[in-house]
Amino acid sequence: MALLDPQAIALIPARGGSKRIPHKNIKDFLGKPLIAYSILTARKSNLFSRIIASTDCPTIASIAQEYGAEVPFLRDASLSDDFTPTLEVVLDAIERCDLGDSVPLCCLYPTAPLLSPQTLHQAYQILCDQSPSYVFSATEFSFTPFRSFGFENQTLQMLYPQYQNTRSQDLPSLYHDAGQFYFGLTDTFRHKIPIFSPKSHPLILSNLQVQDIDTLQDFELAKLKYKLLYEN
Q1: DSSP reduced 3-state for 57
Q2: For residues 122, 128, 130 and 136, what is the CA-based torsion angle, rounded to 10 degrees?
Q3: 56 φ, ψ to 5°?
Q4: pLDDT single digits (tens) 69-96
Q5: At what angle do helices 58-66 and 34-45 cross, to 10 degrees?
Q6: CB contact at 8 A, 102 and 72
Q7: Domain membership flag for residue 96
Q8: Which CATH number covers residue 193?
Q9: Residue 151 lies in a domain
Q10: Closest listed residue to residue 176, CA positions, set 219, 143, 215, 128
């Protein structure tokens, strides 16, 4: 793939304090640390002049450098807890790396082994052609949320009772963030424009290309999807 914009930057936020899956960002995933897949995908895309990892963990920093990312600083602990918004981490990196104005910046999560270089190219092209606030990957809910219900105190309650007799194929499609990347300009991040703003553009992927990794079961499911996508 040709280098489309030598000014584009990839930023991979990878803190060391994962609780549900300890050391998740560097846990072995089919022979490589999980973070390696995001770094290698960014490299294969040939979109980025720099691939920067933002982490508070020296071990993650060392592994990120091994696979081709630079780690120009260690992130402060105050920006590395469970409650730190992604935008704050991106802003910290923009300032500490002295990134210029209107630079295409891709915040690429370290837990996206299913992401392909081709998807990053699609996202970048949309950013260039349509000038949205952000481009991010998304996927359709595998089953419509309009038929969901709560079950508390042995009592079932439909969240949308008006749709309980509506055929699922007659309900509108709904989508959710794939948790892989957010592509925008440094100015957009600096102005703290919400990622899910009306002017953002979701790039819709199939369920096979997406897997949130929050539990060990998710981790194993991501491995199965990876094998289906890339090992056949």
Answers
A1: coil
A2: 50
A3: -100, 0
A4: 999 999 998 998 888 899 999 999 999 9
A5: 40
A6: no
A7: yes
A8: 3.90.550.10
A9: no
A10: 143
Cα 186 from Cα 133, distance rounded (Å): 11
Number of structural domains found in the chain: 1
Q: Residues 202, 175: contact at Cβ < 8 Å?
A: yes
- Where helices occur in 82-174 by DSSP H, the ranges are 86-96, 117-130
| Coil/strand/helix, residue 29 | strand
Amino acid symbol at 117: P
Q: Which two tokens stand for residue 188?
A: 């957009």
Amino acid residing at 62: S
pLDDT tens by residue, 111-168: 999 999 999 999 999 999 999 999 999 999 999 999 999 999 999 999 999 999 999 8
Q: Give the domain extent around 48.
A: 9-141+175-227
Q: How far is CA 190 from CA 12, 174, 228, in A?
A: 17, 29, 39
Token reading at 164 = 């309980």
| pLDDT for residue 6 | 54
Instruction: Read off the tokens for 202.
Output: 């979701």
Calpha distance 202→65 (Å, rounded): 30
184 domain residue, yes or no: yes
156 lies in some domain: no
78 — phi, psi (to 5°)? Answer: -65, -15
Whole-model pTM: value is 0.93
Distances in whole angstroms, Cα of residue 199 to Cα of each of 31, 144, 184, 194: 39, 24, 11, 10
Say which residue the tokens 């895309």 belong to.
Answer: 45
Name the band, by pLDDT with cuts 50, 70 and 90, for residue 1: very low
Tokens linked to 149: 């219900």
